[in-house]
Structures are given as structure tokens and as C-alpha cells.
Amino acid sequence: MVTEDQTMNATLIxxxxxxxxxxxxxxxxxxxxxxxxxxxxxxYATGFFWMxxxxxxxxxxxxxxxLATAGFGLLIPIACWxxxxxxxxxxxxxxxxxxxxxTTDGSEEDDDFED
Length: 115
Description:
The chain has 115 residues and is mainly α. It has a domain at 17-90. It is built from five helices and no strands. The chain has helices at 4-10, 17-30, 36-40, 44-68, 75-90. Helix 2 packs antiparallel against helix 5. The chain is elongated and about 50 Å long.
């Protein structure tokens, strides 16, 4: 006997690698605002933490250290920002996707229901 979970798992489609690559690149571009790339991929807690607490703290520490190190302390927020963009690129996407998602064979999944 086939259960409902087995039926749902059998109908899942794999994403096209080009789509996944494009979504990763979008997350990196959105990371111009620190944390926004994480929010785009569905990691809301991480994204909002970095947006409102982590990056302002990194900026404060960088400015404070730049006074003592002739400006080299400003490399800390830049390194933190670059690390966040890389992490947003590597994170797994937790969002729910659109109804018409391209499959690996190039065709689109049709969701027309017949009554």
C-alpha cells in the first residue's frame, strides 16, 4: 500500500543546476546589505541578526580599532561583509519555490488541475 508521504516524495522534482546557481548569485548580490542574502534564502533569524546586530557591532569594533591601528581596523567589517556574502552563497535555500519550477530536463512542471 502506497502512503500519501510516498506519493508526495515521488512527485518532487529536482531543481535545474542553472536555477540554483542563479539563486546563489542573487543571494550574493543582495548581501550588499549585510544579512539580506540570508533572508532571501529563508534564513530569517541569521539574516536579521547580522542586519541589525552583527554588522553594526562589527562596524563599531572596526572604527574603534581603526583609531588605534592607523585605519587597519576597518578591514574587520570588510572581512565580515565578504564572509557574509560567501556564507549566503553557500547556504541551502529554505524557501518554498514557485509553482512552475524548471526541471532538470528543461521542461516546466504543469500544475493545471482537472476537476
